[in-house]
Every structure is written in structure tokens, then in C-alpha cells.
Amino acid sequence: MQQSAKIERQPGFLPRADFQRLLDGVVKSGYQLLGPVVKDGAIQLMEVSDARQLVKGLTNEQQPGHYRLQQTAGERLFDWNHGPQGLKPLCFAPHEVLWVEQKDPLSFTTRLPDLKPTAVLGVRGCDLAALAIQDRHFLHAAGADPHYRQRREQLLLIGIDCAHSAESCFCASTGDGPSVNQGVDIGLSELDDGFLVWSGSDQGEAVLQQIDLAAAQTQQLEQMARQSEQAAQEQQRKLPSAEELMRLYQRLEHAHWQQIAERCLGCGNCTAVCPTCFCYDTHHEVSLDGLSAQNVRQWDSCFSASHSSMGGFKVRGDILSRYRQWLTHKLAGWQEQQGRIGCTGCGRCITWCPVGIDLTKESDAILWEGSLDE
Amino acid sequence: MATDKPKLAVHKFSSCDGCQLALLNLGEPLLALPGLVDIVHFAEAGPNSPDQAVDISLVEGSVSTPEDIQRIQQVRQNSKLLVSIGACATSGGLQALGNFANRHEWMASVYSNPENIEVLNSSDPISKHVKVDLQIQGCPVNSTQVIGALRNLLSGVAPRAEVHSVCMECKRQGLICTMVTQGEPCMGPVTLAGCGALCPATGRGCYGCYGPAEQLNDRSISDRFEQLGLDAQAVLRRFRFIANSAAGFKAASEGLRGDTDG
Ligand code: SF4
Ligand code: SF4
Ligand code: SF4
Ligand code: SF4
Ligand code: SF4
Asked: Which domains occur in chain B, in start order?
């Protein structure tokens, strides 16, 4: 599996009571800070400046079609895994105006987003890996997307190793977690008495220079490694290997697709929460007086009729062919297009599917059950 | 006053006037409307000239009396384009629940002289009686959708059809799924988008007022609702509600185990 260079960790230690100093350092460096906060029953990223605003002593129960928060006995800030969305909405906006046009005189103006420098606290390994995939898609030299780029360049990413896995997590099998291993500006690992903190970029280093970190002790480094190992061991799901997944293409007529189609609602939630899904569609909204218009882009999904049509003809007219498109593209097609599978093991499509369809189980069934039915 | 602006009429049939009120609630765009069209008939707002020939008619309400049939035929003749707006006009509305029962028996049990009431046997969508050029669902309609469609029609462009489920709108707005986080049954996955996920935005499940999504897996969502604790009757009522007679929802409710009242 393709990975960008692993970060050489040289962590310092920040006692729990001093965590506010990290937040202050970030804010003083000119960033607005988005951190994990409970809103509407889920952990979401909201603007924060005070460590007391952050979630504390909470974990998440994530199972197929099921998400609940639960109290833990401890004081930890990051004992949960991830909320309903990763970094995707921050860079690839769910709904945005790309350009506006005026009729008299005729003019076209690009509308670029205006995101302040923004630090994101608590980013997980799976989501960092997904961002790297989206970067490759939206920022590749030939056709870099100015809207995506404008937002992406404002981000300072503060990653956190997962000390536990949720039931739907399977990043160990895709090689993308449970510890952060690429793309962070600042990395964190939460221990009982505080945090190991390291920088992964010049911007991260500039922030950390304002904070006095103690030297990390050997037993702290050992606890960091042990926690990551434990989180990986806790995982109950895994994906077949990349090579095995290429064989999905030989099983396009497998009877199990029909069984999935009987459960799948075709609603598109899986694609909306998937941190790597990048499909969108654009349309024109004309002002009532007809003198101006805006071109709007919004998230689309391979489960929608618009995405499944060519020249007015529905090439994928049913849920079976749409689910098959999603799974084979994500797990096999991406390997040819992007050099790796399009899944980083975050498990969101399992948790947030209203009927709890589980891509790890479905791909297992298609690859390993029954005979080749061609 | 004769002008060469296109003429617009807003007609009402069997309905609660909610869609007309949604239009009146538009605010600023509503004030710009008279600059573009002559509103010759919109009784709820003032202009009252139902028999004029117009370029576009917006029609609210279902057809439920013999007189309605004559009137909708007249409206059709007078209109170059006819757009039905709202759940009543597009699927028969809440009042089409009566289609599943014997309405003459019902009337006899409520009114002392039911023979004085002249109604059809069913509450019908406009499209059952005349050709409709465009349908905009919702109870009430999303007036921004109506105005957008009007703009397109005035420019001679086919309005953009919504194709997604309510879930896609829900997710685009960053709302948190009521079904996954609270176990609250939601019709969003099988309901056509257009409202902007209004109900999930207030923390409750969608009750399907826009009618069926393009793909409708009623079996699977019914099974899920049962797992979440709804009994068969309650599941049935999720389909047999505001858009009860929209084709997909009607077929779904008729196929369900809880169908004992019809
Ligand atoms: S396919 Fe599912 S598990 Fe994989 S990255 Fe997307 S949402 Fe996460
Ligand atoms: S998938 Fe891995 S990295 Fe992501 S939240 Fe779960 S354990 Fe953490
Ligand atoms: S897999 Fe689940 S989330 Fe995805 S379209 Fe089907 S029902 Fe919706
Ligand atoms: S709350 Fe309803 S509309 Fe929103 S994602 Fe969940 S099921 Fe879909
Ligand atoms: S969420 Fe559902 S019930 Fe509520 S307005 Fe939208 S379509 Fe109607």
C-alpha cells in the first residue's frame, strides 16, 4: 500500500494540566482552532479556544447503523475515535458556489472560498490518509482545483494516535492507522498523565517552539507504542488485501450483489461520510431577474440517478448496479487510478449506513463465498 | 392593464393553502416577481381573475369533486404550461388517505345529510385528469424550488429535477443522522430530496412528505423500522401519510403486513 514518508517522531511531553498551552500556542500563531465538541449527540469539530470546551471522558460506540457516545471513568480527551465526518467537508465543501456570471456586461468571476488559517485538533490516522488521497485527486498538477486548494492550504493538522478502536474501525488492515503516520503538522499521543507531542512540519514546529515541552521518558514512549498496538488488536474487522480485492472484477455476476441490493436503500449516506469519496455535480442557479447566475457544486453520489446516467440514459438503473459500482470502484478501480485502494478503514460507511451494510463483510462474501458465477 | 410580460396564475383546488402561503413567505424574491410576470390570478394574495389565459399556471390542491374536474380542464385550456405544486396536487395529498377507505360510509357516519355532499370516490393528483408539464413535490412546497423552476420556464429551459434522497441533503448540511444516533425512524433514505432536510435539521426523522425517492427499497427500510421498535401498523403509517398515494408509497403500503385498514 502506498504511504508517504513516515514521520520521524521525536516527541516531548506536555502534562495533562498544561494542555491549554498547546491551544494557546495554536491560537497565538494566528489559527482559528477547530476541536472536538459534543453537538447533537455526536462528536463534531467546532471552534474552540479553551481546553475546557473539549470533550472529556467520552468514548463512542460505533456499530453497523449505530453511533452513541458513552461516559468513561477517565479524564482522557481523545478516548473516542472519530465523528460523523473527517476532513472532507473542510476542503471539499458539500455545497459551494464556484463562479458567478453577470449578463450586462457579460462577465464571469471565480468565487474563491475565504477560509482563515485553521488548525484542526484530534485528526485520526485514517482521516489523514484519506486527505492524502483527496489531495492527489484535487491537487494533481494538471488540473488542481483552486477551491479545494484555497481551503487545503489554510489547514494545520494536529493528529492524535488512537488508543482504542471503535467496533467499525479496520484501519490496521489498510495500513492507515491506528496511529497517525503521515501528513500531520503536529502529532499527539495521549497517555494517562499527559501528551507526547511532536512536530511533523515547519508550521507545526513553529507552533511547538512557543511551548515548553519536557523530555519524554522511556516508559512514556513505551506506553505510546503499546496503546497503538492494543488499538490495532482490538479491531474486529479487516479488508482483504489489495491484490485480493482486484478479484472483485471477476465476480461482477456473483449472487451476493443481489442480496446486498435487497438491503441497500440507495440513499448515498456511505458516499457522503466516506472521507475519500470525491464525486460532485454542478448546476446553474439563475437569479429571478435573469441578469446573473451562479454555478454551484455539490456532493454527488454513485447512488444517484444523475451520477448513473449518460446522455439521458441510465446506465446504472438499479441499486444493485450502483452498490457494485461503489464497492468495485472504491476497492479495485482506485488501485488502477490512484495507486491504492480508496478505503482507509475508518468504518464510517458502516456506522452511518441507516441499515448497517458493512463493506468488509460484503467484500468477503463476494470474494470467498460461492463459486465464480460467470 | 395590458403588458407584454408573461402571465401567471396560481390556482387552488382541494388543499389547505399551505403551498400558496409558502410562496407568500418567500420574502424578497416575491417582490421581484411582478417585475417579471403579470400575476393575473392568485386569490390568496389578491388578484382574482381565474378564467384568463396565461403562460404559466401553478396549481395547488387535489381534484376531489366533479366541479374540480371541470375547473382543472378549464385551467389546462387556459394555460400554456401547467405546474402542479405540493403533495396534494402531485399525489392527492393527505386527504387521499380516504382513497383507502369507503368514503361514503365515512360520510354517513359523520354528516346527517351526506347526500348533500358531492365528492369523487378519490382525491386525485392533477395529473390524473389533465396533462401536467412539471410537478414540484412537498408539503408544503419549497418556494425556492418553485421560483427556480419559474425562472427556468420563463427562460425556456427545463428545470433541474431533484434526483437524490433526503439523506444527501441531510449530509451536505452536516446534520447528524437521527436514525443512527437516536434510533429514531426516518424516511429520508427513501424520500425525494428538495426540502433541504427540514425535519432532520430539527432533530426529528423525515416523514416522507416529498414522496418516494428515485430508488425505493421499502422492504429494507420497513425491516429497519421494525428493528427500531415500530410495529407493523406504525411502519405502514410511515408510507400511508402525507404522500400516501404517490405511486411508490402506495404500492409499499399495500404490500406491507400491517395493511388491515384498507
Ligand atoms: S469506504 Fe468506508 S471505511 Fe473505507 S474510507 Fe470510506 S467510509 Fe471509511
Ligand atoms: S479507523 Fe483507525 S485511525 Fe481511524 S479512528 Fe478507527 S482506530 Fe483510529
Ligand atoms: S450501503 Fe447503506 S448508506 Fe450506502 S446507499 Fe446503501 S443503504 Fe445507503
Ligand atoms: S436523519 Fe434521515 S435523512 Fe438524515 S441521514 Fe439519517 S436517515 Fe437520512
Ligand atoms: S424532511 Fe421529509 S417530511 Fe420533512 S419536509 Fe423534508 S421531505 Fe418533508
From this structure: 7-154 (3.40.50.700), 166-255 (no CATH)
